[in-house]
Hints:
Layout lengths: L1 H30 L2 E6 L14 E2 L30 E5 L4 E7 L11 E8 L4 E5 L5 E3 L5 E8 L1 H5 L4 H4 L6 E6 L5 E7 L7 E7 L5 E10 L3 E12 L12 H8 L5 E4 L29 E2 L15 E2 L5 H10 L3 E6 L19 H15 L5 H8 L10 E4 L5 H18 L4 E5 L7 H12 L4 E8 L1 H6 L13 E9 L13 H16 L4 E6 L3 E3 L10 E3 L4 E3 L1 H11 L4 E3 L1 E3 L10 E8 L4 E8 L5 E8 L7 E8 L18 E6 L4 E6 L3 E8 L2
Parallel strand pairs: 1-30, 2-14, 14-17, 17-18, 18-19, 19-20, 20-21, 21-22, 23-24
Antiparallel strand pairs: 1-27, 3-6, 4-5, 5-13, 6-12, 7-12, 8-11, 8-13, 9-10, 9-12, 15-16, 24-25, 26-28, 28-29, 29-34, 30-33, 31-32, 31-34
Helix pairs in contact: 6-7, 11-12
The chain binds alpha-L-arabinofuranose (AHR).
Amino acid sequence: xxxxxxxxxxxxxxxxxxxxxxxxxxxxxxxxxxxxxxxxxxxxxxxxxxxxxxxxxxxxxxxxxxxxxxxxxxxxxxxxxxxxxxxxxxxxxxxxxxxxxxxxxxxxxxxxxxxxxxxxxxxxxxxxxxxxxxxxxxxxxxxxxxxxxxxxxxxxxxxxxxxxxxxxxxxxxxxxxxxxxxxxxxxxxxxxxxxxxxxxxxxxxxxxxxxxxxxxxxxxxxxxxxxxxxxxxxxxxxxxxxxxxxxxxxxxxxxxxxxxxxxxxxxxxxxxxxxxxxxxxxxxxxxxxxxxxxxxxxxxxxxxxxxxxxxxxxxxxxxxxxxxxxxxxxxxxxxxxxxxxxxxxxxxxxxxxxxxxxxxxxxxxxxxxxxxxxxxxxxxxxxxxxxxxxxxxxxxxxxxxxxxxxxxxxxxxxxxxxxxxxxxxxxxxxxxxxxxxxxxxxxxxxxxxxxxxxxxxxxxxxxxxxxxxxxxxxxxxxxxxxxxxxxxxxxxxxxxxxxxxxxxxxxxxxxxxxxxxxxxxxxxxxxxxxxxxxxxxxxxxxxxxxxxxxxxxxxxxxxxxxxxxxxxxxxxxxxxxxxxxxxxxxxxxxxxxxxxxxxxxxxxxxxxxxxxxxxxxxxxxxxxxxxxxxxxxxxxxxxxxxxxxxxxxxxxxxxxxxxxxxxxxxxxxxxxxxxxxxx
Length: 679
Ligand code: AHR
């Protein structure tokens, strides 16, 4: 009996505690109640289909070593140190020499090649390539090994009797893991005196993240070797010279409105001679001339002496990628200025013609008929249909009167021949400095189409600037928020993290982009990619190693905005005010005319759960069940990683919508997207 009584008392105490906790929560929620009114009956401007897109630049091994899945670094021996990333190897008892030669090369663009002269092959004499911070191979996948080779013994036979006696060489190809265990082999033989491409398929017996490649001569003789490649067969859409499938999938999953390429400062180059020249990146891959990557030596604290641009991923591949992922292509061209953070070299105004011609020819390459000079090149590469280019950027992140003068030259020439192409100009590297103000006033006078703004700022800047565009003029040039990312420590700091605090602040700011979608027509986070062992700049949207990849919390913010952009702005009041950011609550809304849904985004930038009274004013009858997508964590330091790629990722829920006025409880520190169908 005593036992029953004490158990009853214990249960009563627990119930009282539970009730009291519930009561306390109710009080807390009541204290945090806000109202959000969506003026469904007052739809505003259309939202651009290109509103949220992608900024691609070959930084952090984003192209070679990243999206472009070639495993061999310095495959053509064209780095200034031709043996960089290669080493000579002897598997035991071999005798021979290895030289880098330049006589009678495959072509002028690929002037160097490796020459083996083996007198005793032993267990194999050859070279090994380390890859891009090693090579990744997947068990069960197939990789095409290829090289260009020729047997010089034949060509020298007349002058060197010794050579005639040698048997033609055979090559053994090996992939080895980090412990030098062979995980795949292949064999090539029958090399002719002329340069020719040879290939063999390799199928690794095991998965290895840190592997390397060996090419071994198996018997005495000579061989010239160039353009050595190990390329996965399983590229996106199984294309030859295609792109890394997992990375393209992450891009496609964002449903991006546009793809900007090839950057970024890489467009400008440290010097004009190393600027990005699109014509050198199309046509036969073997003829694309390599140059230094502009990020090779930019940061002394993150040197990358082995960072070059092979241009295996060139303008054709960028256009094709844009098409594959349903994004509008946005190429940026050099406007006769090298990077103003570096050499600031300028092309004199009266010598800009070749630069302008490059821009005109690019439109021809993208859109011209197959009978035109550059349309023919596109068709020969396998794409006779036009790429539907509608916009182009003139210069990347330029400033000063020098830019305005050059922009005017480009704009005059491009607008007179191609009025159908929208031109993007820029407002410099900062969101509000003197350079910014000067450029905006000039570009406004010039009736520029769209001006690209950049802001790499602290999370608090993003939280306090969601009203940035509220007072921008509604006429004149539109805005492209072309590069932005919250910096947890400071711009270009190697300690910046892709944590939830940064991503949440970007989400808050982006509600301001949504609200002003009549002025802001495009937006993209930057930079896009980073190799975990090869990066120069952080934070970045997507990180990867040689096999795996993941989207950061910032990626999921971008994705949620892009997937839920809607088609027309709906005005939003928070606590009765049209101003965003009331008590750290941010909101934007749109109607999606395709699905008939009201799309409401709410960012709660406080650590508290918040109860929100939502009023869909003028919506009439609504469907009883709504969809909620929630991205949130109370721990602002939360990050994703290769081992926990989706630790922070959107969760889908359903919720009751009793009428057009309802209460919704938003999670602490969260971005919530509500989709409610109207009847
Ligand atoms: O995104 C990294 C760099 O930041 C871009 O190349 C440049 O445009 C900006 O300064």
